[in-house]
Amino acid sequence: MRIDVPHDLSPTCLAGFACVLRDLPEAAEYEFHFGEERWFPPFSMLLLSAMLRQFRTSRPEARRRAREHEKHTYAAHFGFFRSFGLPHGKAPGEAPGSSRYVPISELDANEIRQEAFDSFQEVGDVIEGKAAELAGILTRQQAGELQDTLTYSIREIMRNVVEHSGSDKIHLCAQYWPLRNEVEVGIVDDGVGIHRALTENPAFEWLTEVEALQMALMPGISGNPLAGRGNDQWNNSGYGLYMTSRICRNGGSFLLCSGTGGIELDHDGKRTFETDFQGTAIRLVINTADLSALRERLQHFAEEGRAAAAQIAGANLNVASTASQMLTRDFRKE
């Protein structure tokens, strides 16, 4: 059976393609045609590779063939094809990266936990170190507002994967376009998804999949019913996605895809779309032209978030955790 990969490789178009893959009739062989080389955004590579892995898992007995993939040289260099099992181009993490991009790469959640244990650190500290390393590849800086913003944003999404998804792997990529004042970061996991993670909290067990996506972006919302309790600086307080999405909406955008739906937020508002995706996929697009001091921005968002959380049944009404309001170096000073 022939399957044409969409000509439009935008995330929302690929989200619809996931529904097409789900509804395909059973066949002994599927032949994927990738078409002519065209603009293939980094996050779209990450999203499509996850969809193709999931398709392979859902139909393990079927043969799969690829056609016209050799035309996509940048995607091959980026690690796209090998990330879903096609032996073409570089493997994930093989390309060295540069001051403009981080190719498709994988991190092991269990190795992160083990590294924290072995080095007498918190898991959050290890995740922040890896986030800072990724941000440094893009910015070629060790400090500055762009470095801080990227480190914080990547850290918070990676924390969600490790703490809530149940996924063994974190799949990620990024690209920086200085002339466009834009950074794109994509992070994908193959875990339980937003709905299942959030409805583990009895306060939210009634949510539909679409409602869970929207609720996940609100302040103080967590699948952990004990969120916000205790004095641990890395305490889960349900503010990670809320804070990160607020950063992105300042001239950029935030996209969340999980289960049967997705949401894209930007300065023009909110758009929803249908999909079929196991796990969670997040794209951060950050406008680098007007970055004010990160800590002040986060504290402002946290104050607004606490007021909003007071209106949401089941939300954590305590303040956002210390880690949700700053980078490690800042709260270690206090």
Automatic annotation (TrEMBL):
It comes from the Bacteria. SUPFAM superfamilies: ATPase domain of HSP90 chaperone/DNA topoisomerase II/histidine kinase. PROSITE patterns: PROKAR_LIPOPROTEIN (PS51257). This is Histidine kinase/DNA gyrase B/HSP90-like ATPase. It comes from Silicimonas algicola.
